[in-house]
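for the recovery benchmark. tokens below, seq after
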């Protein structure tokens, strides 16, 4: 019997009417002869509200209690979904992370799944029940509730699909697939019928929040076929033309550029004239690593006399103050000045065809130049080019690049002329 995992995001379970509508889709999948496990997010806005309650009590809270609070939205929707299914005559049971159990590490707020003890859930599915898992939550090594990071229900769904050896993992959301860029920013964005795991991973890491980064990592590692679908469309599962996230080998027509993403709220720090000697970079970054500050693009430029070097790197804007005070208090290195800019955005173009096509970077730099958008830092990988620009130009840059690479709907046939 085919086994599928279907996940409904926050807007798809935003109220009782939407939960009922999602339940109708689940029932239709059951009637088609599938064993179905459902993963639900909290109702839209609820997790934000719960986070806000924690912040109102204290700006920095005990991470275990934070997780106890913010995981609770999914408990509500999993129970409501089970009730909605029961009302439709389908056997259903809700599962919290600890009941499965979804065993995680101890990094509260951004826990990683270590393993899933899915035996009891498999039995429930084989017994004809729909299992409804509360997404986003797991159990720490010390048996406390953990959460998987914002957007983590995607990861719950893919992890469950992997452990249940499901035939598909359908991610129902408020857009009908993965687009060439966020369709809310560029209405002319085009839906991609297929995207490779690698491209989706880069797009998710570079700001396309349609799938959580770790869910894509997991899908790629465990070879889980993931479909992104609209929960507002009447069709279900493979009847619907969503986006299939799959192995590169399954994609016949490889795009040179598949998508453009943007990550707002980036900050840049520059250390001027640091002494140029072995080990200096390690002394600069060690205190940041110890404080779990995630450092991203790093550029080091040695001065022409070879004695000093400038080091520039980026961090999330929320980590800027911590970063600056750690650097200023560090006695392990000396520099002339620490400069910073907290109003930047990182715009990236992603595409697997870049591996074998020249000229993608040239198009990007020319386009930004034409729009008089200054580039602060550039970083590349095999299938991505990212630039750091002033945040105020972010949307203009995305629109201009989207057009320059011919990604719009109307330009479908002669796209990717980078
Ligand atoms: P859910 O609550 O279902 O998990 P999210 O809000 O996390 O949904 O993700 C869906 C949103 O992702 C869309 O509403 C869209 O604005 C945004 N998004 C960003 N980039 C893209 C993209 N390239 N393709 C589709 N959606 C995108
Ligand atoms: N409810 C959680 C969040 O808002 C998890 C999710 O929606 O995926 O981040
Ligand atoms: Mg999401």
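predicted aa per position
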């Amino acid at each position: 019997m085919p086994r599928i995992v279907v996940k409904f995001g926050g807007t798809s379970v935003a109220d009782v009417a939407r939960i009922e509508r999602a339940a109708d889709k689940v029932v239709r999948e059951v009637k088609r002869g599938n064993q179905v496990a459902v993963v639900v997010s909290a109702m839209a806005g609820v997790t934000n509200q719960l986070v806000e309650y924690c912040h109102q009590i204290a700006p920095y809270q005990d991470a275990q209690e934070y997780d106890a609070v913010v995981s609770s939205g999914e408990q509500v929707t999993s129970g409501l979904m089970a009730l909605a299914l029961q009302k439709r005559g389908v056997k259903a049971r809700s599962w919290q992370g600890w009941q499965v159990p979804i065993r995680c590490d101890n990094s509260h707020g951004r826990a990683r799944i270590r393993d899933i003890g899915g035996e009891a859930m498999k039995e429930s599915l084989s017994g004809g029940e729909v299992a409804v898992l509360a997404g986003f939550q797991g159990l720490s090594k010390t048996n406390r509730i953990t959460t998987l990071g914002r957007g983590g229900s995607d990861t719950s769904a893919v992890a469950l699909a992997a452990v249940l050896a499901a035939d598909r993992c359908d991610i129902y959301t408020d857009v009908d697939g993965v687009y060439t860029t966020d369709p809310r920013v560029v209405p002319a964005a085009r839906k991609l019928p297929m995207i490779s795991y690698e491209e989706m991973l880069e797009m998710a890491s570079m700001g396309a929040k349609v799938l959580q980064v770790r869910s894509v990592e997991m899908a790629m590692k465990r070879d889980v076929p993931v479909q992104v679908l609209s929960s507002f469309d009447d069709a279900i599962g493979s009847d619907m033309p969503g986006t299939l996230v799959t192995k590169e080998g399954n994609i016949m027509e490889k795009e040179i550029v598949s998508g453009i993403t943007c990550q707002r709220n980036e900050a840049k720090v520059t250390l001027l004239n640091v002494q140029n000697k072995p080990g200096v970079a390690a002394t600069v970054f060690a205190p940041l690593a110890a404080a779990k500050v995630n450092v991203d693009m790093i550029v080091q430029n040695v001065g022409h006399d070879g004695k000093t070097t400038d080091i520039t790197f980026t961090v999330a804007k929320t980590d800027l103050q911590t970063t600056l005070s750690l650097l200023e208090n560090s006695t392990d290195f000396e520099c002339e000045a620490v400069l910073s800019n907290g109003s930047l955005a990182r715009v990236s173009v992603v595409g697997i065809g870049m591996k074998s096509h020249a000229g993608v970077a040239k198009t990007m730099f020319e386009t930004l130049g034409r729009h008089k958008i200054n580039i602060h830092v550039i970083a590349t990988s095999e299938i991505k080019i990212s630039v750091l620009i002033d945040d105020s130009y972010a949307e203009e840059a995305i629109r201009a690049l989207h057009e320059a690479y011919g990604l719009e709907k109307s330009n479908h046939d002669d796209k990717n002329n980078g």
